Amino acid sequence: MEEKRCYGCGAVIQSTDPKKIGYVPQSANQGEHVLCQRCFKLQHYHQQFDASLSAEDFLKMISVIGDKNCLVVYIVDIFDYDGSAIPGLMRHIGYNDVLLLANKRDILPKSLKDHHIEMWLRRRLKEEGIKPLDVILTSCKKNYHFDEIYDAIDNYRKGRDVFVVGMSNVGKSTFINGLLKHYGQSDGFITTSEFPGTTLDLIKIPLDEKSAIYDTPGIINKHQYTQVVDAKTLKLIMPQGEVKPMTYQLNGDQTLFIGGLARFDYLGDTKASITTFFSKRLKIHRTKTSKATSLYDNHKELSPCLDRIARMQDMVMREYFLKDGQEVVISGLGFITVKPANKVRIYVPKDIDVFVRDALI
């Protein structure tokens, strides 16, 4: 007998262990389309549950792609490209054809030209050994460029299966749901939420009698802020609309706090323009560097904070000299530019990645 799967996350349905994925009470395990308890509560009560699958489990699941001749739709979060890129992607997918979708275009400033973003992406992909068939900017929430994406998939797949891959929370399930809605299919939608790791197994969606689109599990990046904050803070740090750059004039003895989650010290000798790109719901606080540690330790004005990071000494300090045309990225949070180029210091929890890259904006 073919195993029954949750139509929301793809997990195998079971009624024996409420703590494991795919659990459905026996009384609710009826009919062809069943929603597991986790997906039901995500959809109806917006409750977050930890998935009992490791990053190794996720990679093992997508390794089946390497044994197939297929088209891979690779989705990245353009606002946090460095945190959403899959290391060694081509090796995991057996060097199959790749169509890159850069999601969350609506979050970047409208003044930024699509052509500029695409060229920036192509340079990054070349550095990583990825030669995509095409690069398409999109917003899965707003169905941006969905006609172009649909045509590209139909053209490039050449009758083959399509596998949608990406890091956790880049918008894979939202993309597939938007595609289904866009073309008139209204049932069997995949569970989506802002919580990372929603899809737990391969979800098959038939395209025709011989081929299908598969939604794959998101690979968890444990070094992003989205993985270490609680559900309330997650809503604050994830931009829900266009990010408005905020520029501050700082002297060499001044500091910016991004909420209570990160600290930025400007170490230059001359005044500089510091432009921040973060969710508008995160408050930026400016203070003298000499007072920054005591301000954080008192926790009177800075929020949100991580409970486990009670004092500034629990943060890790990293120093960088930003060259002209570079920006510093705090993974899962946002990024900062400095003009003119100068030395900066960043404080974040030890498990959060910080990158210096060629400026996107």
What would you note in describing this structure?
InterPro entries: G_CP_dom, GTP-bd, GTP-bd_ribosome_bgen_YqeH, Mito_lipid_metab_GTPase, NOA1/YqeH-like_C, P-loop_NTPase. This is CP-type G domain-containing protein. Residues 46-222 form the CP-type G domain. Pfam families: MMR_HSR1, YqeH-like_C. Helix content is 22%, strand content 24%. β2, α5 and β3 (134-137) form a beta-alpha-beta unit. It has three domains: 1-49, no CATH class; 53-221, P-loop containing nucleotide triphosphate hydrolases (Rossmann fold), CATH 3.40.50; 236-358, no CATH class. The strands form three sheets. The protein has a six-stranded mixed sheet, with helices on both faces. It has a five-stranded antiparallel sheet with strand order 7-10-14-13-16, with no helix packed on it. The termini are far apart. The chain has 361 residues and is of the alpha+beta class. The longest helix has 14 residues, at 114-127. It has helices spanning 37-45, 55-62, 81-84, 89-92, 114-127, 146-157, 172-182, 231-237, 289-298, and strands at 71-77, 97-103, 134-137, 162-165, 203-206, 212-215, 246-250, 254-258, 262-266, 272-278, 284-288, 316-322, 326-330, 334-339, 342-348, 354-358. The chain has nine helices and 16 strands.
